[in-house]
Specification:
One of its GO terms (molecular function) is ATP binding. InterPro entries: Anticodon-bd, Anticodon-bd_dom_sf, Pro-tRNA-ligase_IIa_arc-type. This is Prolyl-tRNA synthetase, putative. One of its GO terms (biological process) is prolyl-tRNA aminoacylation. Keywords: Aminoacyl-tRNA synthetase, Ligase. There is one protein chain. The N and C termini lie far apart (75 Å). The protein has 142 residues and is an alpha/beta fold. The protein is 36% helix and 20% strand. Strands 4-3-5-6-7 form a five-stranded mixed beta sheet, with helices on both faces. A two-stranded antiparallel sheet has the order 1-2. It has a single domain, classed as Rossmann fold, CATH 3.40.50.800. 20% of the residues are buried. It is built from four helices and seven strands, in the order αβββαβαβαββ.
């Protein structure tokens, strides 16, 4: 008919501006701070190796005990419905792992080392406050 008509379109795609706004709202100088209900990973368990000064055989034995405790706790949390990851890569230092998971915004990290295995406790590190608390394993359903 020759009349001019306006074109209309809608897109439901998320663009970089929306993602940037989310990071600005849910972030700090250490990375994302994601609420547990929307976090892809709610809990990360990081085994803390013993000092290298204990000798290679004892180090292996202690590390195996730490990792066994971590696996048991992971299985309990997964059975309870938590989205949980065990970061048991022995090639990376614990500090690297803590930073990695902080940047990703995981709300809670559980740290288990030789001291925690001996005392039947865990160290809980909360991402949103930075607070670290020692708790008995029974608080984690064990």
């Amino acid at each position: 008919d020759g009349a001019r008509k306006s074109a209309h379109s809608i897109t439901w795609c998320i663009d970089f501006g929306v993602i940037g706004a989310m990071v600005m709202v849910h972030g700090d100088n250490r990375g994302l701070v994601v609420p547990p209900i929307v976090a892809e990973t709610q809990v990360v368990i990081v085994p803390v190796p013993p000092s290298r000064g204990v000798g290679p055989t004892r180090w292996e034995m202690e590390m195996d005990a730490i990792e066994n405790e971590c696996r048991e706790l992971r299985d309990i949390l997964l059975n309870d419905g938590a989205r949980c990851v065990l970061d048991d890569d022995r090639k990376k230092r614990p500090g690297f792992k803590f930073t990695k998971w902080d940047l990703q915004g995981v709300p809670l990290s559980i740290r288990i080392g030789s001291r925690e295995v001996e005392t039947n406790t865990v160290t809980l590190a909360y991402r949103h406050t930075g607070e670290k608390v020692n708790e008995h394993l029974s608080c984690c359903g064990k």
